[in-house]
Amino acid sequence: MDFLRPASWEEALAAKAEHPTAVPIAGGTDVMVEINFDHRRPEYLLDLNRITDLTEWQVGEESVRLGASVPYTKIMEHLRAELPGLALASHTVASPQIRNRGGVGGNLGTASPAGDAHPALLAAGAEVEAESVRGSRLIPIDEFYTGVKRNSLAADELIRAVHIKKADGPQQFSKVGTRNAMVIAVCAFGLALHPETRTVRTGIGSAAPTPVRAKAAEEFLNAALEEGGFWDNGKIITPSVAKQFATLCSGACNPIDDVRGTASYRRHAVGVMARRTLTWTWESYRGARRLTEGAA
Amino acid sequence: MRVNFTVNGRPQEADDVWEGESLLYVLRERLGLPGSKNACEQGECGSCTVRLDGVPVCACLVAAGQVEGRDVVTVEGLADFAKQRAEHGGCASGACGTSLQDARQWAAKGTDSQTGEGTGLAPIQQAFIDAGAVQCGFCTPGLLVAADEMLERNPNPSDADIREALSGNLCRCTGYEKIMDAVRLAAARQGEAV
């Protein structure tokens, strides 16, 4: 094994181009587990810790450019207003020690369906900034996950940052596990209201081979909200609409039975989380409306 | 490969380090610092918690090569670290935590050996003894490092704060109640001392 320690991003890209099998390591919270347990013996480890740009973020007009190695702790502390869904998801990642090291770049690189960041990224809307010596490209998050622990990165590409849309409305994240801390998701659900475009986006974790959006559920809810004038009148969402949304979210799952839970439990739990996160976000939207437009 | 870094204020050099080796292995097997415990090797248990440039991390998940030029504090250096911090005014300014610069300038003084023997105890260590928070003791080093860091950041923690800060440290003996007592005790003593 060789340990490559590029001092700059350009050096890292050159190293990855020269050794496409090199495994990038930043927080190490996934890679080191595999090495410790002899599940993986990469020829090259590519340490990204010396590249300080990767731990920085920029808040722009429309989106936040989040460096690939910004630890979850920093997202919770500094980006709660701009990225509420991702901040909530970050808070459910493992333990303080892990959150101090791990970041979204690693979650995307590993591309496990159980990664906590994915539902929040799918719901908010995001693009992955991937780069190689050949150039840089932005991969829409919906096209990023290609299979169980597979993503659309080329062998010579590294993740530099994620561009996540700033919240224009309430966002929520919910996760089922056996306890509060140190838990891998049995399944997870992210939901974001986008009042500016009058749309709702979702993200489902651990209930399909990849993280997925519940697109049919989104389309149904968008139409139902529009039809009932809900965005304008700020009424409580009718229980039948919430129920149908939950059913469609369950239907978007394609889960398996495993040690953490059965497929039917996962489908059921995703439906419950869909209904709850919809209620939470909608109540928050109605509250904000009352504040800005006065009580009716 | 060779790795140069600072442990408990002293420059250290580890030779013949395997590229896939963890910081934990280097500390325990190459530098003779067995205080950080090796249990799960997957970041679940927190018994290997150390501070890397001031930040609590699981040493089993840090590749040895990643600590080149950086600063590590282990449980062996905790008493000195806490003493140094107390002498520099603690956290009264509100600017809590250890800056990278402070962490790098930190140096062990007047100890008998690098194992921490002959040094007094850190307040958190004394509190663990006084509260009876140590049973088999295997999780204790990680808990001490994590709890000490929390009290540095947050001198008046609520029970929820304590639980959150220690949520990455597993203890199979105590049921955590005595550990909670110990951290509350350390916080109260810290408050009295100011």
Automatic annotation (TrEMBL), chain A:
Domain FAD-binding PCMH-type: 1-169
Keywords tagged on the record: FAD, Flavoprotein, Oxidoreductase
Entries under SUPFAM superfamilies matching the protein: CO dehydrogenase flavoprotein C-terminal domain-like, FAD-binding/transporter-associated domain-like
Record InterPro entries: CO_DH_flav_C, CO_DH_flav_C_dom_sf, Diverse_Substr_Oxidored, FAD-bd_PCMH, FAD-bd_PCMH-like_sf, FAD-bd_PCMH_sub1, FAD-bd_PCMH_sub2, Mopterin_DH_FAD-bd
Descriptive protein name: FAD binding domain-containing protein
Species in which this protein is naturally found: Streptomyces coacervatus
Automatic annotation (TrEMBL), chain B:
Domain 2Fe-2S ferredoxin-type: 1-78
Key word Oxidoreductase present: yes
Positions of transmembrane segments: none
Origin superkingdom: Bacteria
Gene3D superfamilies per the UniProt record, alphabetical: 3.10.20.30, [2Fe-2S]-binding domain (1.10.150.120)
PROSITE patterns: 2FE2S_FER_1, 2FE2S_FER_2
Keyword annotations from UniProtKB, A to Z: 2Fe-2S, Iron, Iron-sulfur, Metal-binding, Oxidoreductase
PANTHER family: OXIDOREDUCTASE WITH IRON-SULFUR SUBUNIT, XANTHINE DEHYDROGENASE IRON-SULFUR-BINDING SUBUNIT XDHC-RELATED
Name the record gives this protein: (2Fe-2S)-binding protein
